[in-house]
Specification:
four-stranded mixed beta sheet; 721 residues; elongated; five-stranded mixed beta sheet; alpha/beta; 27 helices
């Protein structure tokens, strides 16, 4: 039954309704009842027609009465000519098509905008049980950059990239690993473990997952989205020496071909502001080239001037290459940045480290001094007092005053020699301190509570920076790992850099495991260590062995000493040294990392200038004889003990056992001691040195054997300078 509509006056209405309003509402209710009855009539007709019965014909007057009443009660913005279906329009067979009734349409227009009928549902995206992903295999564990341009071509060539590799979402982590190994085939040996990485900017990082999560198929689909999946091997799979040579040859040939073709084709160029620009370039390339401010037009030709510098030619080739690339290329900006960075690095490599240090030392004031009172048996303690003194300023000249073991002051004023000797002793003391561990020529930072408490790491960094700028020796005892961390904050240490011999033996056993049972057995003694290092995890296959070893080495050598390393870097910032190290790493690497000494007798002879008396004098004849003794002594020292004895001679003469990176000032010299000079009543027997002015004074012996004996005695029995 259809419910009847009635009109009731609201009880809480503030103003009573008028008689006219009540009458209108009553008529509206009646009209709505009529509309509802009409709708039921239409449905009845439809049902009857469907089952094959003859419909009952309604009178047309019903439509007119409804329309007129509705129009009078509810005026509309737009009259509709649509009326209810009449008997003549109804089909006699088949389903009846329902048309929207005019009252309903007009009520919709008057009161609100709403839609009726069947709503359109949004089509759901089709769900697939698999997806495709590019898999990029890194050639070695130390590769930390995102693969672009030429490296990507190289990896493609050697089969280290799997394009559109299909991954099932239902795969677990182990299945994903196995299928990727099958994809790479023989290029991925069985003893090499893999680690998943993802691109973050220009670097590769390991995805951060919650505890207990593994990168299965579904997680890879959600985490990586459109990014490529990088896999890092546990050891080097592809060397780059031959490929780099081949790549450089191809690049050189292509650049030469491009440059020559542009140079030979005059009809394909037009001139703008003195520059010839190929017309075959795209519009954006031409615009970019024409706005360059190089003189003489270096894009296509050099106006026939053969004296153009090689730098302009190289830059001309660079601009020519850039002009041929379209702006809509996704790699255009990255290629420009890479080329500019390469050019800057080449320019940086040409700057000698001596020039860099001289620039830094030019800011040091020689008008004021900071005093250091040093006892040779306690160099580090004296250095700590001096560096922590309130009045200390690294931009002021250092004044070092030594005392002997009995506390008696030495008679000497620092004009450079005592300062160089102090800095040499200080570098040797730092290398032997508990702040560093490892091999003598390749030390890494150690974790020492006393050094942390006293902030020794900061003082050590400051001392190294001061030594380089103030004319001292370099700290060439650091490992390449530490230097790489100083330059860009990343490194890949080796297993042999673990200084703890007991831990090293245990880790070696893990690295030599051949089965999963051997791996678990060798890992057992390291459970507490692995828990502290964050490396305690189940081993699912023997392939996880290398990754575990790598994590242990990273923790022991790098992560464990992050606090001391940060303080060490803060100290190296003194006088702007760390900034220069990062800007010119190739120039500073020989100063921090050990390199075999190349000091020879010929270098020593060239280093010292010889001051002779005027020609024709008796002194000159005696001095020329001793000059030959001096050079023979240098040759014998190199043959007998190698560079170590030459370093002793240099330290005896200048206070420095090696040539400082900043150089000597003044230049070392050789002078001679004559009888009657400097209150010598008889001929002196031993050589003397004045390290303040880098001068060694030789006695005038007539026998080389006597000269050598006295010189050896002086080197072996001199304490200090």
């Amino acid at each position: 039954m259809r419910p009847q509509l009635t009109v009731r006056s609201p009880a809480n209405r503030a103003t009573p309704m008028s008689t006219q309003q009540q009458r209108t509402l009553t008529e509206a209710a009646g009209l709505l009842n009529t509309i509802l009855a009409s709708a039921e009539t239409i449905r009845t007709l439809s049902n009857v027609t469907t089952i094959g019965q003859q419909p009952t014909v309604a009178t047309p007057s019903v439509d007119t009465s409804i329309d007129s009443h509705l129009a009078s009660l509810f005026p509309t913005r737009q009259r509709s000519s649509v009326s209810l279906p009449t008997a003549g329009h109804l089909p006699t067979a088949g389903p009846v098509r329902r048309e929207r009734a005019p009252p309903r349409y007009q009520a919709q227009q008057c009161f609100r905008t709403w839609t009726s009928g069947t709503r359109r549902t949004r089509a759901r995206a089709q769900q697939h049980d698999h997806f495709n992903k590019d898999i990029i295999g890194k050639p070695n564990p130390s590769w930390e950059a995102v693969c672009k341009q030429h490296p990507k071509v190289r990896l493609h060539k050697h089969g280290h990239i799997l394009n559109a590799f299909e991954i099932q979402k239902a795969w677990d982590h182990q299945t994903v690993m196995e299928r990727i190994r099958e994809g790479f085939g023989d290029r991925l040996p069985e003893d090499v473990s893999l680690q998943f990485l993802m691109a973050c900017g220009n670097k590769l990082v390991s995805p951060t997952l919650q505890e207990g999560q593994d990168l299965n198929g579904m997680l890879i689909h959600r985490v990586y989205k459109t990014k490529a999946l990088y896999v890092r091997p546990s050891r080097t799979l592809l060397t780059d020496s031959e490929d780099e040579n081949e790549l450089s040859l191809i690049t050189a040939r292509s650049m030469l071909s491009m440059h020559s073709s542009t140079k030979d084709s005059d009809e394909d160029c037009f001139e703008v502001s003195g520059q010839q620009i190929p017309t075959s370039m795209s519009s954006h390339g031409t615009t970019r080239a024409s706005t360059s401010t190089l003189d003489g037009g270096c894009l296509a030709r050099t106006d026939g001037n053969p004296a153009t510098s090689s730098h302009d030619e190289d830059y001309s080739s660079y601009l020519t290459l850039m002009a041929t690339l379209p702006d809509d290329s996704s790699d255009d900006e990255e290629l420009q940045q890479a080329i500019m960075a390469s050019m800057e690095s080449q320019i940086a490599e040409k700057i000698p480290v001596q020039e860099i240090l001289l620039e830094l030392s030019s800011k040091v004031s020689t008008k004021q001094q900071c005093r250091f009172n040093i006892n040779r048996s306690a160099v580090w303690e004296g250095a700590m007092r001096g560096f922590k003194r309130v009045s200390y300023d690294p931009n002021l000249m250092m004044c070092v005053k030594f005392s002997d073991d009995m506390g008696r002051n030495e008679e000497g004023v620092d004009l450079g020699g005592p300062r160089r000797e102090f800095l040499r002793l200080l570098m040797e003391t730092i290398a032997r301190s508990p702040m560093f561990e490892g091999k003598e020529s390749s030390k890494t930072l150690a974790l020492d509570s006393t050094a942390l408490r006293g902030d020794w790491y900061y003082t050590a960094g400051r001392a190294i920076a001061v030594s380089l700028v103030h004319g001292g020796p370099p700290p060439n005892f650091l490992s390449p790992t530490v230097f790489s961390l100083l330059v860009d904050g990343s490194a890949n240490p080796g297993l042999e850099e673990i200084a703890d011999t007991e831990l090293l033996d245990k880790v070696k056993k893990v690295s030599k495991s051949t089965t999963l049972e051997d791996l678990e057995e060798s890992k057992a003694p390291l459970l507490d260590y692995l828990a502290n290092a964050g490396c305690l995890r189940p081993m699912r296959s023997i392939g996880d062995r290398d990754l575990l070893v790598h994590d242990i080495v990273m923790f022991q050598v790098i992560h464990r000493v992050q606090g001391p390393f940060q303080r060490f870097c803060e100290g190296l910032k003194t006088l702007g040294v760390l900034e220069k190290i990062k800007r010119h790493p190739d120039s500073f690497r020989p100063l921090f990392c050990y390199e075999a000494s190349t000091l020879t007798a010929d270098q020593m002879d060239d280093l010292f200038s010889i001051s002779l008396s005027p020609e024709g004098s008796n002194k000159r004849a005696a001095e020329e004889i001793v000059v030959t003794f001096w050079r023979d002594y240098l040759q014998d020292a190199e043959e007998e003990e190698g560079s170590s004895k030459l370093q002793k001679i240099l330290a005896f003469s200048t206070g420095a056992s090696v040539v400082p990176p900043i150089g000597f000032s003044p230049t070392p010299s050789v002078q001679f001691i004559h009888k009657g000079e400097d209150d010598f009543s008889s001929t002196p027997m031993f050589p003397m040195a004045n390290t303040c002015v880098n001068c060694i004074r030789l006695p005038l012996h007539v026998s080389y054997q006597l000269f050598k004996e006295k010189f050896d005695f002086a080197l072996g029995n001199t304490y200090g300078f």
